[in-house]
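Incident log, structure service

09:12 report received: a user says their structure output differs between two submissions of the same chain.
09:20 pulled the input from the user's history:
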Amino acid sequence: IHNDALRHQWFKLRLDSSQSMSSSNLAKQYPNGKAALEDDARTPEMMTKDFLTAIRKHVEMVLKNKLPISIYSTTPIEYIITVPAVWSEAAKAKTRTCAEKAGMGEGAALHLVSEPEAAAVYSFDVMEPHGIRIRDTFVLCDAGGGTVDLISYRVTQLKPLLRVKEVVPGNGSLCGSIFLNRIFKEFLKKKLGGLQSWDDEILEDALERFENVKRAFAGTAEEGYEIP
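09:34 re-ran on a clean worker, output below:
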């Protein structure tokens, strides 16, 4: 996709009408100028199905290039789709339907898991040894690009697989890190936009540098950064 081309975005979130972009103050204040207008002819279900189809085809291509054909053709493939913790059952059903139409399987071969639960499994794996015991309760913050979810879990099993149980219903909002980028972009334009040497190329370089800084930032206020 050309950098200046309009593109469909956030269509996955539109699978859940209760999580509309119009309900997010950040989305209203800091819209994406490159986002294509919503098109009734291209429903969220259609775009999600097309996106998942492209993902499936790419996965198959990579596996075929890396594995002998005898192994690839005889190895069962199961897909696990993660969804926001705050999604309704209707939105989960739509996601499953889209994945099935994308050729990712159906029934027991296709799994849906909440994003915070997937994050919890990953976190326990990388934190080993973590000191967490059965019946311990913890709050997990899944801060993603579009949404931020908070959910409380109680550990019910550690071995052979981690199992957790939701303590209270999760909550979340459209306040992910993409909005930090947009707020920073507006700050730069207001602060430096009047300079003679300022142009779109410098802005893009600054935003790319900011993305790297943001991901590595550990909360040390005294640390300085040069952008771009």
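09:41 both user submissions now match this output. Likely a transient worker issue. Closing.
09:42 reviewer note: The radius of gyration is 21 Å. The chain has a mean pLDDT of 83.
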